[in-house]
Amino acid sequence: MSLNEYLILSSLLFCLGLVGVIRRKNLLMLFFSTEIMLNAVNIGLAAVSHFHQDLTGQMFAFFIIAIAASEVAVGLGLLILLYKRKNSINLDTLQNMEG
Amino acid sequence: MFEIVAFYLFAILTVFMFGITVFTNNALYALSSLAAGMIFISAFFFLLNADFLGIVQIVVYTGAVIALYAFGMMFFDSMSEVKEKIQNPRLVFLFSGLAALITVVAFLSPIISTNIISDYAVHPEYGNTQDVGVILFTKFLVPFEVAAVMLLVAMIGGIILAGKKMDVSYSELSEDEIDALESSNEKDSK
Q1: pTM exceeds 0.90 for this model
Q2: Which of A1, A11, A29 best probes binding to B when mutated, by most B CB atoms within 10 angstroms?
Q3: Cα dihedral angle (B30, B32, B38, B40), rounded to 10 degrees?
Q4: Do A90 and B73 touch (CB under 8 A)?
Q5: CA dist., res. A75 & res. A29, Å (int)
Q6: Looking at CA atoms only, how far is residue A66 from chain B in angstroms?
Q7: Is residue A99 within 8 Å of B94, Cβ to Cβ?
Q8: Beta bridge partners of B81
Q9: For residue B129, which of B71, B76, B54 has the smallest C-alpha distance?
Q10: Cα Rg, chain A, nearest whole Å
Q11: Closest CA to B32 of B78, B99, B95
């Protein structure tokens, strides 16, 4: 196995997440897609770390995981607050201004 | 040979699972396929000799993040189909793909010709977990502490945001009291 296979897989998964972020209108599904993108980047970092025999990539992956965890905590809190107020988590209902 | 078979098996499984997450209309299917995909991704970390990262992936993602999503989904009506007005704007897809490509090229072109020297080399005699520990607590101590503070802030923020108006316990109220509370809440939201 070479570095290229892992990087191709990583970019494939990232594109899948990107398509989800652009396409989805439900905010919860949008969160899932961002998780996919973060995971795809982690694979790439771990692969570079392995094939260059350097631990910096793995360190970055750890911090990305920490950021993902805190993003979920704050994001879900905001989502629950939004659902209580609007009774929906659809992006289309968030438009307040006419335009 | 083993590595090749495992890589392609888990690559196909991961792409399939995340494909379900991105394209399904059922929130529950999306959540469970996301959890499966996260576990399959940890297999790549084990293949890449990043054992500690693989364990952290399983514990943090499928243990904490997915559990948090599962609890969060109790607040939404997740059993029903997700209704979305998807119009698939092809031009937006094309332009965002191009923008991502340009960003990658702009960041990679200065370093692609230079020789990459490893800053923190792997010590095979240590083993992965000990190696990670040594680097994390010597070279990356300040980012580590900042990440700890950030997680604390996120935890407090999450509790405060989600915990509003949760001082009323429905299990201790009678049916009539719950109905009265619900109708007054609906008036407030309108």
Answers
A1: no
A2: A29
A3: -110
A4: no
A5: 12
A6: 7
A7: no
A8: B26
A9: B54
A10: 17
A11: B78
The verdict on a CB contact (< 8 Å) between B53 and A5 is no
H or E element in which residue B129 lies = helix B128-138
Chain B partners of A84 at a C-beta cutoff of 8 Å?
75, 164-165, 189
pLDDT digit string, tens, across residues B160-187: 887 776 667 767 777 887 788 777 766 6
A26 strand-pairing partners: A90
Mean pLDDT of B145-153: 94
Q: How far apart are alpha carbons B66 and B37 in whole angstroms? A: 11
Q: Which residue has the tokens 């693989």?
A: B54
Residue with tokens 């594109």: A15
What whole-number distance in Å separates Cα of residue B55 and Cα of residue B183?
Answer: 47
Q: Are the beta carbons of A48 and B131 closer than 8 angstroms?
A: no
Residue of chain B whose Cα is closest to the Cα of A62: B53
Q: What is the mean pLDDT of chain A?
A: 87
- Min Cα distance A71 → chain B (Å) is 7
Q: Establish how many alpha carbons lie within 13 A of residue B111's alpha carbon, considering only the half-sphere containing its beta carbon.
A: 7
The ipTM is: 0.90
CA-CA distances (angstroms) from residue B142 to A48, B60, B128, B134? 23, 21, 21, 14
Query: For residue B150, which residues of chain A lie inside 8 Å, CB to CB?
Result: 66-67, 70
Query: Which string of DSSP letters, residue by residue, matches A2-63?
Result: -HHHHHHHHHHHHHHHHHHHHH--BHHHHHHHHHHHHHHHHHHHHHHHHHTTBTHHHHHHHH
User: How far apart are the CA of A98 and the nearest CA of chain B, in angstroms?
Assistant: 18
